[in-house]
Amino acid sequence: MMNNKFLGRSIVIMSALSTLLIIAALVYIILDIYSGGRNYLTWEFLTGNPKEGMTAGGIFPAIVGTVLLVLIMSVACVPIGTITAIYLNEYASKTSVFTKMIRFAVNTLSGVPAIVFGLFGLGFFIQFVGAGIDKSIYSDGQLHWGQPNLLWASLTMAFLTVPVVIVSVEESLKTVPNDLRAAGLALGATKWQTIRKIVVPNSLSGIMTGAILAIGRGAGEVAPILFTGVAYFLPHLPQKLTDQFMNLGYHIYVMATQSTDVEATKGIQYATAFILLMLTFSLSFVAMIIRYRFRKKLKA
Amino acid sequence: MIENHKIVVENLNLYYGKKKALNNVSIEIPSNKVTALIGPSGCGKSTFLRALNRMNDLIDGVKIEGKVLLDELDIYNKNIDVVELRKKVGMIFQKSNPFPKSIYENVAFGPKINGITDKKKLDEIVETSLLRSALWDEVKDDLNKNGLSLSGGQQQRLCIARALAVDPEILLMDEPASALDPISTTKVEDLIFELKKNYTIIIVTHNMQQAARVSDYTAFFYMGKLIEFGETNKIFTSPSNKQTEDYIRGRFG
Asked: So what's the ipTM on this one?
C-alpha cells in the first residue's frame, strides 16, 4: 500500500518536473534571445535596410520577403488543403484503397525532411516547370522562370505546409455533428449544399487555424527556399513573382555563417531571431484565440 | 379502410450488410392522419421511418428490396430525385438539431436552397412556418437570436418550423419528444394534432400513452416485421395479435 502511494506521488512529481523543464527551456530561449538583441530592437531596425555588410541597419527587406512568401504560399496551400480535407472527410469512403493512398501520401509528406522539399522544388519547379516555360514561351535563350524566385519558393513551401492545413481542417470537420448533416439533407439540400452551407461554415475556425499554423510553419522554415528563391542580400524589394527575396530565417543564417565579421552581427542576429519568434508566436496565439472563440459559439 | 393512402409499402426488405433489419413489411399509410410506429428498441421502426425519405441511403452497406410508393410513385425507382423526395417528406429527429445560426436563418434555410431569394417572401415563409409550429409568439422579437440559445422544447419546435418551411406533404418524426420535459412534450403533441389537418404524419415513439394520445393509426413492429396495423383505438383496446397485446400491456419491450 505504502509503495503504491509512493509510486503515485513520484509520478506526479516527475511529470510536474518534466513540464517545468519544458517551460524553463522556452523561457530561457526567449529571455536569452531578447537580452542579446534588445539594444537593436528599434523602429529603424524594423523599417530599414541592412547596412555596412549587415553589421548595421535593419531587416525590413527580410520581413517583406517573409510576408510575401507566406502569403503566396497560403494562396496555394489553404484552398488545396481545405478541398482535400473536405474530400477525405465528407466524400471519400473510409475503407477504399484510394482514400488510404491519399492518407498515406499526406502522412508521408508531413514526415519528409524540409531540405528534401528544397531539392524537390529546385528539380521540379525550376529545372522542369520553369525551364519548360522558358523554352516554350520565350525564345531569347534567357532565364525567366527557370531560376530561383519568389513563386517557386512559395510553392515549394506550400508542399511542406499543405499537410498542416489538411489535418487541421479535417479535425474541425469531424467536430461538426452528423445531426446537422442529416438535418440539411432531410430538408432537401444536396450533399454539396449541405457541405457548403452547414459543414464548412461550422469549420471555418479549423480552416483559419490551419492557415495560421501553416503560415507560422512557413515563416520559420528555411531549407525549402534555400535553392528555390531566397537571396543573401538584395538592394530592392521584390517587385514580381520572378524576383528573388530576402527572408528572416535565412538572414540569421547568412549573418551567422557568411558575414565577414560574424561577431559584429551578433546583436542583429539576436534581434532578428526575436522578431521571427514573435511573428510565429503571435500567429499561434491568434490561432488559439480563434479556436477558443469558435468553440464557445458552437456551445452557445 | 376507405381512406386515401399517401404511402403504400409493398414487401419491403432492408439489410444492413448481412443483417436483415426489415422483413417483408407491407403497409398502407393514410393521408392526413397521424400514424404511430411502436415496438421495442431495435424492432426496425426507426429504420422503416428512414426508409420513407431514403435517409438510410447515407449508411454504407444498406440494401433495400420491395416498393415504397408515395402517391403511387416508387421512391426507390432509379429516376427518382432523392433531393426532390426529401423536400416532399420532411423529417424531425429525436435530438433537436437546429443549425448554429439565427432562428430566422434556420427556418429560411430550406426555402433559400430552393432558390427563394426575395426577402419579403422569405419573411412570410418564416412567419407562417413559425406560426404553424406554435413558436412564433415566443420568438417573434428575437428572430436574430441563435437557434441554439432556445430551450430544448423550443429547439424541437424550431426544427419542425424548419421542416414546414419547405412545404412538405409528409412529416416523419423520430421520437420527437423523447428528450423533452412534460410541458414541452404536451406542446409538441398539441402541435402534431394541429398539423395533421395539412400533413400526413408518421411518428416513431417509445411512449405508449403518447401513441394513444396523438395517433389515428398504430403500427406495431417486432424483430423487423410489421406485426399489426390498424386504428389506434382498436390496437390499444382489442389487439388481434398476442405479441401486440403483450407489448402494449407492458409485458416486454
From this structure: 0.89
Whether residues B166 and A183 touch (CB distance < 8 A) is answered with no
Q: Which residues pair with B204 in a beta bridge?
A: B37, B174
Residue found under cell 506521488:
A9
Domain contains A210: yes
In angstroms, what separates the C-alpha of A188 from chain B's closest C-alpha?
5
Higher model confidence: residue A259 or residue A239?
A239
Q: Report yes or no on A36 lying in a domain.
A: no
Q: Do B113 and A183 touch (CB under 8 A)?
A: no
Grid cell for residue B236? 390499444
Specify the 3-state DSSP secondary structure of B252.
coil
Burial of A80 (0-12, 13-18, 19+ CB in 10 A): middle
Q: How far apart are the first and last CA of chain B?
A: 29
Dump pLDDT digits (tens) for A259-300.
888 888 899 999 999 999 998 888 888 888 887 887 776 655
Residue A225 structural domain: 41-299
Kindly tell me the burial class for residue B152, based on how many C-beta atoms sit within 10 Å of its own C-beta (0-12, 13-18, 19 or more): middle
Inter-chain touch B86–A188, beta carbons under 8 Å:
yes
- DSSP H or E segment with residue A70: helix A60-86
- For the stretch A42-66, pLDDT in tens is 999 999 998 887 778 889 999 999 9
Using a CB–CB cutoff of 8 Å, tell me whether A186 touches chain B.
yes
Spatial distance between the Cα atoms of B35 and B177, rounded to a whole number of angstroms: 16
Give me the pLDDT at residue B1, please: 47
Q: What is the DSSP string of A25-41?
A: HHHHHHHHHHHHHGGG-
Q: How many residues are recorded in chain A?
A: 300
Mutate to test the interface with A, among B87, B99, B102, B158 (most CBs of A within 10 A): B99
Q: How far is CA B43 from the centre of its chain?
A: 17
CA distances from A42 to A53, A242, A254, A271 (A): 19, 32, 21, 9
Residue A6 lies in a domain: no
Q: Concatenated DSSP letters for A146-165?
A: SS--HHHHHHHHHHHHHHHH
First to last CA, chain A: 46
Assign A60 to helix, strand or coil: helix
* Overall number of domains in chain A: 1
Q: Does B100 touch chain A (CB under 8 A)?
A: yes
CATH of the domain at A173: 1.10.3720.10
Give residues 2 to 31 of B whose Cβ lies within 8 Å of A.
none
Rounded CA-CA distance B206/B45 in Å is 10
Residues A122, A116 contacting (CB under 8 angstroms): no
B253 pLDDT above the threshold of 60: no
> Does the residue A7 lie in any domain?
no
Query: Is the torsion defined by CA of A156, A160, A164, A170 positive or negative?
Result: positive
B173-189 residue pLDDT tens: 999 988 888 888 998 89
